[in-house]
Design a protein that fits this description.
The chain contains 14 helices and 16 strands. The protein is α/β, with parallel strands linked by helices and 370 residues long. The longest helix is centred in the C-terminal third of the chain and has 18 residues, at 333-350.
């Protein structure tokens, strides 16, 4: 079975949550006999065809970007060419250009859409895009919601319930590097063993401004791993609040990220908008047995992190509530340990890449056989 994944960004250009999920899908399904390739956009015009971890990544030049929607004129011909060789197209939503490419190329190949998120921020552009979006979602064979929470709360998915099923994200620990003792010692010497960790791209919906307000006036150490569009303003906020116990370490290699996940006391995940549809970082924390603090935003974050079981869930955009949760967890290490163990057990039961791959493999076979 040959499957073509189509998404606007992918490794090695970008290391976000959706990219990680596609990577895990490709790796997991390959063990079940699926030959998967990825078509994506790139700014690197010198290397348009490459191999990444045993699978082919086809890249076309990014020509223009409008409201976070990448557009490539050469993508049409390349997509049509690759789609003709595939048994199934696996789309990753949202990406409006993808919908247009589907119709422009006259795609008749069986198709699956993983619905990663509603369109939240671009409300006015959404009104223009909605007719195309609805036509696209109506035409594809199946839609996948990534959690029961998101299916229950998405107004868009509500219109397509009869063709939507739930397959949650999954991760495989084996593809993460084991940090060397030297790397662990380096970070342990810098931050000790009792610090809260944030991992992710520093975007508007991540709620880091709430986190910084929450820890103002406390001495709770926080490490922020990642970079992104709001990095400068967050550093300015931290300086304005006099937060000497907040450490911005920037984007780091995977080995360093794993070292910090292993060493941290707990993970903080203050995302406050529905743009945060699931939270791959929450899965990573659970995989390494760490308790979590997240916000209730009606998405998959509260499917991964169960309040009072695997961590604490607080109201969104509420610094006092987030501060109280952090302080409570910080002051109760035995509770934090139990929650971390529960998180690891929930991960092993529900969120492995193997389980995700088996579900997608069955869906692929069903679509091709329809």
């Amino acid at each position: 079975m040959k499957v073509l994944h189509f998404y606007r960004t992918y490794y090695p250009d970008s290391f976000g949550g959706v990219e990680q999920v596609i990577r895990q899908m490709v790796e997991g399904c390959s063990r079940l006999g699926v030959d998967a390739e990825v078509l994506t956009l790139t700014r690197d015009k010198a290397n348009l065809e490459l191999e990444f971890e045993g699978h082919v990544v086809h890249r076309v030049p990014l020509n223009i970007e409008i409201a976070s929607t990448g557009i490539s004129w050469s993508a049409f011909a390349r997509f049509k060419q690759l789609a003709a060789k595939a048994d199934l197209i696996h789309y990753h939503f949202p990406w409006p250009f993808m919908d247009i490419a589907h119709f422009a190329c006259g795609i008749k190949t069986p198709s699956v859409v993983t619905y990663h998120s509603d369109i939240v921020r671009q409300k006015y552009l959404l009104k223009l895009y909605q007719p195309v979006m609805h036509r696209f979602l109506n035409k594809v064979d199946r839609i996948v919601a990534t959690s029961p929470n998101y299916l229950a709360t998405s107004p868009t998915l509500a219109q397509f319930r009869d063709k939507t099923e739930i397959i949650t994200y999954g991760l495989e620990r084996d593809i993460y590097p084991d940090p060397s003792e030297e790397t662990l010692t380096k970070w342990r010497a810098r931050f000790g063993h009792k610090f809260f960790l944030f991992v992710g791209v520093l975007r508007y919906y991540k709620g880091l401004h709430v986190l910084l307000d929450a820890i103002a006036g406390t001495s709770i150490p926080v490490v922020i791993l990642g970079n992104g569009p709001v990095e400068t303003e967050l550093k300015q906020q931290a300086q304005r609040l006099g937060l000497q116990h907040v450490h911005f370490v920037g984007a780091l290699p995977e080995e360093d990220k794993v070292a910090l996940l292993q060493l941290c006391y707990a993970l903080v995940f203050p995302s406050h908008l529905r743009s945060e549809a699931f939270g791959i970082t929450l899965l990573e924390a659970a995989m390494y047995g760490k308790p979590m603090i997240s916000c209730e935003i009606g998405t998959g974050t509260s499917y991964v992190n169960i309040d009072q079981e695997t961590g604490l869930v607080v109201p969104a955009s509420d610094p006092p509530a987030f501060r109280q949760a952090m302080q409570y967890l910080f002051d109760h290490p035995e509770l934090a340990e139990r929650m971390g163990q529960a998180a690891a057990q929930r991960y092993a039961t529900l969120f492995t890449a193997g389980k995700m791959a088996q579900s997608y493999h069955a869906l692929y076979q069903d679509c091709i056989g329809d």
